C-alpha cells in the first residue's frame, strides 16, 4: 500500500511541474528563450557564464553551426512523419541561424527554467522507480512509465524549440505536452491517495455529485482545455505581431478570430461555473467546486487586464498559471465524482 511519503513526493512533483510552466511563461514574456543557445547545457556549461568574457570570440558562429545541424535533423524527422511543408520552411528560414548577443539576465532566466525542469524530471523519475521496485501496482506502473516517457520527449522537444529559435508551433506542442504531464500527475495523486491508499481514505474518495453538476463540470473541463489551446494560438499571433513591429497597445485590435473565440469562451466557462457554484451551495458545498469558481474569477480578471491594459507581461504568466491550475482542479474533481 503506497504510503504518505510517496503521496507527498507526487504532490511535490506536481508543484515543480507547475513551476516549470510559470518559469517557461516568464522566459517567454522576457524574451529569454534564446538566452541559452544550446541544450541541455548552456553555452556548453552546466552553470552558465555571467559575462561574455568567458566565451570564445566566435561563439555566435559556433552555436549557429550547431543549430543548423540540429535543424537539418529535425526537418528530416518532420518529413518522415508527413510534415514536409513545415520541414521545408525550417530549412529555408535563414533567420533561424542568427545568434543573439550574450545577455546575462536572459541567460540566467532561461537557465532557472531548465533547473525547475530538471527538478520536475527527477520527481517523475523517482516516482517511476518507486512504482516499479516497491509498490508494483499495475496502474501506477503504467501511469508513472507514461509520464516518464512524455517528460523525456518534452525535454527532447525543448531542445528543438531552442534549435528552431522559438518557432511558434513548436512552442504550442511544448505547452500541450506540459498539460498532458500535469493531468497524468494528477491521476497518479488520485490513485495513490484514493485507489490504493488507506481503507478509511478510500471510503471517502467519491463525491456524490448530481448528474447535472457532473455534466457542467465535464463541459467546463473540456472548454478550459480548448481555451488553453486557443490561448497558445493567440500567443503565436502576438509573436508574429511583435516580429512585424506592432506594440502591445495594438495587439488586441489585430489578433483575429482565435482571440475573440478565446475571450467569448471564457464567459461561457464563467456561466457554467456560476451555475455550478449555485448548485453546489444548494447541495453538498464541495470545496473543489468553490475552488474552481474562485480560480476562474481570478483567471477572468487577468484576462480582462490582458485585453484592456496593454497585456502586461506578469499578468500573462498569472493568466497561464491559473488556467493550468483550473484545469487540474476540474480534472481532480472529475476523478472523484460519481452519481448520487
Question: Could you characterize what this model shows?
Answer:
This protein has helices at 4-29, 59-80, 84-92, 104-135, 138-163, 168-195, 199-203, 211-243, 251-254, 257-282, 287-308, 313-336, and strands at residues 207-209, 337-339. The protein has two domains: 1-205, no CATH class; 206-340, Four Helix Bundle (Hemerythrin (Met), subunit A) (Up-down Bundle), CATH 1.20.120. α2 packs antiparallel against α3 (84-92). The model has no long low-confidence stretch (mean pLDDT 79). With 340 residues, the chain is mainly alpha-helical. Strands 1-2 form a two-stranded parallel ribbon.
Observed structural traits:
single chain, 340 residues, mainly alpha, Four Helix Bundle (Hemerythrin (Met), subunit A), 2 domains, two-stranded parallel ribbon, 12 helices
Number of helices: 12
In angstroms, what separates the terminal alpha carbons? 28 Å
Strand order of the largest sheet: 1-2
Gross geometry: globular
Query: How many structural domains in the coordinates?
Result: 2
How helix-rich are the residues, as a percent range?
over 70%
N-to-C SSE string, H for helix and E for strand: HHHHHHHEHHHHHE
Amino acid at each position: 500500500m503506497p504510503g504518505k511519503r510517496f503521496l507527498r513526493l507526487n504532490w511535490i512533483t506536481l508543484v515543480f511541474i507547475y513551476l516549470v510552466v510559470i518559469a517557461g511563461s516568464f522566459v517567454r514574456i522576457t524574451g529569454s528563450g534564446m538566452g541559452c543557445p544550446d541544450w541541455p547545457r548552456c553555452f556548453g556549461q552546466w552553470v552558465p557564464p555571467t559575462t561574455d568574457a568567458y566565451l570564445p570570440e566566435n561563439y555566435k558562429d559556433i552555436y549557429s553551426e550547431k543549430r543548423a545541424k540540429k535543424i537539418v535533423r529535425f526537418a528530416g524527422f518532420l518529413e518522415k512523419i508527413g510534415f514536409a511543408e513545415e520541414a521545408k520552411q525550417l530549412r529555408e528560414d535563414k533567420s533561424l541561424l542568427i545568434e543573439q548577443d550574450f545577455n546575462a539576465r536572459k541567460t540566467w532566466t532561461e537557465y532557472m527554467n531548465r533547473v525547475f525542469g530538471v527538478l520536475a524530471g527527477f520527481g517523475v523519475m523517482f516516482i517511476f522507480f518507486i512504482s516499479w521496485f516497491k509498490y508494483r501496482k499495475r496502474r501506477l506502473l503504467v501511469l508513472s512509465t507514461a509520464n516518464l516517457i512524455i517528460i523525456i520527449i518534452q525535454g527532447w522537444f525543448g531542445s528543438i524549440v531552442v534549435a528552431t529559435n522559438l518557432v511558434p508551433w513548436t512552442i504550442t506542442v511544448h505547452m500541450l505536452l506540459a498539460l498532458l504531464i500535469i493531468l497524468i500527475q494528477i491521476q497518479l495523486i488520485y490513485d495513490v491517495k484514493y485507489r490504493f491508499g488507506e481503507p478509511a481514505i478510500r471510503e471517502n474518495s467519491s463525491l456524490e455529485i448530481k448528474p447535472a453538476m457532473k455534466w457542467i463540470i465535464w463541459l467546463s473541463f473540456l472548454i478550459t482545455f480548448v481555451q488553453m489551446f486557443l490561448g497558445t494560438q493567440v500567443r503565436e499571433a502576438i509573436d508574429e505581431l511583435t516580429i512585424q513591429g506592432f506594440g502591445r497597445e495594438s495587439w488586441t485590435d489585430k489578433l483575429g478570430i482565435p482571440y475573440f473565440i478565446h475571450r467569448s469562451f471564457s464567459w461561457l466557462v464563467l456561466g457554467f461555473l456560476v451555475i455550478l457554484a449555485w448548485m453546489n451551495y444548494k447541495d453538498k458545498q464541495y470545496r473543489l467546486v468553490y475552488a474552481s469558481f474562485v480560480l476562474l474569477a481570478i483567471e477572468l480578471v487577468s484576462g480582462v487586464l490582458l485585453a484592456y491594459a496593454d497585456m502586461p507581461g506578469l499578468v500573462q504568466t498569472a493568466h497561464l498559471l491559473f488556467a493550468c491550475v483550473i484545469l487540474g482542479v476540474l480534472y481532480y474533481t472529475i476523478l472523484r465524482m460519481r452519481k448520487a
